[in-house]
Amino acid sequence: MTVAPHRRATGSPRSRGTIGLALAGGGPLGGIYEVGTLLALADSIENLDCNALDIYVGVSSGSFVAAALANGISPAQMYRLFIDDGRDAVLRPEIFLRPALAEFARRAGAVPTLALRASLQYLRDPLHRGVMESLATLARAIPTGLFDNRAIDAFLTRLFAAPSRTNDFRHLRAQLFLVATNLDTGQPIAFGAPGNDHVPISRAIEASSALPGLFPPVAIDGEHYVDGALNKTLHASLALDAGADLLLCINPLVPFDAPSAHRRGRLTHRKLDRGGLPLVLSQTFRAIIHSRMKAGMDKYASRYPHADILLFEPAHEDVDMFFARIFSYAQRRRLCALAFESTRAYLRRNAAVVEPRLARHGLALRAARIEDPVRDVTDALDDARPLHAGTARRRSMRTTARDLEYALAILSRQLASMRAAR
Fold first, then answer.
1. Do the beta carbons of residue 335 and residue 29 sit within 8 Å?
2. β-pair partners for 386
3. What residues have CB less than 8 Å from 83, skipping those under 6 apart?
4. What pLDDT does residue 222 have?
5. Is residue 33 over pLDDT 60?
6. Which residue from 183, 267, 274, 400 could staple onto 261, CB 3.0 to 4.6 Å apart?
7. Alpha helical stretches, state H, 45-110
8. What pLDDT is stored for residue 421 in this prediction?
9. What local confidence, expressed as pLDDT, does residue 357 receive?
């Protein structure tokens, strides 16, 4: 994790300014890392309420987390939503893996017409148009995505329908920008900005996270949109242009440094090509988006000299983040815990740099918590509110028991700490 290489001009501490949060993508793995980092920040920084910030920017999987925060869903509640062991979690991996049957059917229905067209093209000029060139017409029948992202929209619509939440950008207390890419122009669009705030939040998330090849493009007002990370990694300038004085940025994906991990004894070999094509593609994708993000962050130093920017990301030799199986519940909990601890470790190491920046915005580090060697992510799960509080649907006995379990665990740790202090 790094701090953006510029500082606001020194001055006396002042009351809380305009605080923003920018969250990059990274698939379900990225969301896990972001929740762990947010839990650590909320736990380690006095007066930081992740649900009471002024500006939220989300890209791809970061759009899920940003929209949830803007809707009052705390990082602790998101832990139960995204990361819990599956007994009570309402967002299960299967929701991302439902086949896009409608897309398959639509493309299959076009095969007879396309086959006839390809045959006629070849027969009209067989000497100059090869068979393969004519058959290339059939490529239009290939589905544009494997999985159905409409299920994600439906889930989020229900989640945001609870009292005190909204699926309408215009009814939020804070500014929320969710970025997608217009497929036909290649240009980014910020849903939530004036002129684009009429789109339901759930639909904007569906568009922002529609990774090409996995999910079909999302149609909105006659245009088609795909993943917002195709243009920029963070789109942090949206928050800075909206007036953020302090901007917290979280980027879950960084290039993996295999030689460094090998030297530290965390990896048995130092060459990623041994892992085959999946590791090569993963490293390539990470390197591209990270270099693009770094270039953008460097420009912010001159464009926004008034702002303090803190960037949190994994260590480049973090083996767990690079090799994680993103649909394993056991790994989800472990990776979230690692994100929590690595964020706390970063704050410990860089307290002398971070603390003055936070102080200029009415925030302060909780030194005792940061230095506590046994504090872990479960100590930060102090929000036992149910995800569907106030809804007409009755909470299950299992959910109630889980909420009670969280509360009792927190109380037990507090009592243990009091006894140890005597």
1. yes
2. none
3. 32, 35, 89, 329, 332, 333, 336
4. 96
5. yes
6. 267
7. 61-70, 75-78, 101-109
8. 58
9. 95
pLDDT at 94: 64
How far apart, in whole angstroms, are the C-alpha atoms of residue 261 and residue 240? 35
Residue 231 tokens read as 């243009």
The rounded distance, in Å, linking the Cα atoms of 61 and 331 is 18
Hey, is 349 helix, strand or coil?
helix
Q: How far apart are CA 199 and CA 169, in angstroms?
A: 8
Residue 268 CA to residue 280 CA, distance in Å, equals 17
- The pTM of the full predicted model, rounded to 2 decimals, is 0.81
Q: Which residues pair with 157 in a beta bridge?
A: none
**Nearest C-alpha neighbor of 387 from the set 148, 155, 182:** 155
Under 8 Å CB-to-CB from 10, ≥6 apart: which residues?
356
Q: What is the pLDDT of residues 362-395, one digit of tens each?
A: 999 999 999 999 999 999 987 656 665 443 333 3
- Residue 390: the pLDDT is 40
pLDDT of residue 7: 36
Look at residue 48 in the predicted model and tell me its pLDDT: 96
> Is 168 within 8 Å of 201 (Cβ atoms)?
yes
Nearest CA-CA partner of 177 in 56, 31, 50? 56
Measured CA to CA, the distance from residue 250 to residue 405 in angstroms comes to 30
**How sure is the predictor about 107, in pLDDT bands with cuts at 50, 70 and 90?**
low
Rounded alpha-carbon distances, angstroms, from residue 225 to 49, 57, 62, 231: 32, 17, 16, 12
Looking at residue 417, what is its pLDDT?
A: 58
Residues 6+ apart with CB under 8 A from 143: 100, 103, 104, 107, 216
How far is 28 from 171, CA to CA, in rounded Å? 27
What span, in angstroms and rounded, lies between the C-alpha atoms of 77 and 403? Answer: 10
Q: 35 with 1: CB under 8 angstroms?
A: no
Phi, psi angle pair for 191, to nearest 5°? -70, 135
Do residues 178 and 66 lie in contact, with contact meaning Cβ atoms separated by under 8 Å?
yes
| pLDDT above 80 (res 404) | no
Q: Burial-class residue 20 by CB neighbours within 10 Å (0-12, 13-18, 19+).
A: buried
C-alpha distances out from residue 56 to 84, 180, 201, 354, Å: 24, 15, 13, 21
Question: How would you classify the pairing of strands 175-182 and 188-191?
Answer: antiparallel
Residue 318 has what DSSP assignment?
-
Helix (H, G, I), strand (E, B) or coil at 103: helix
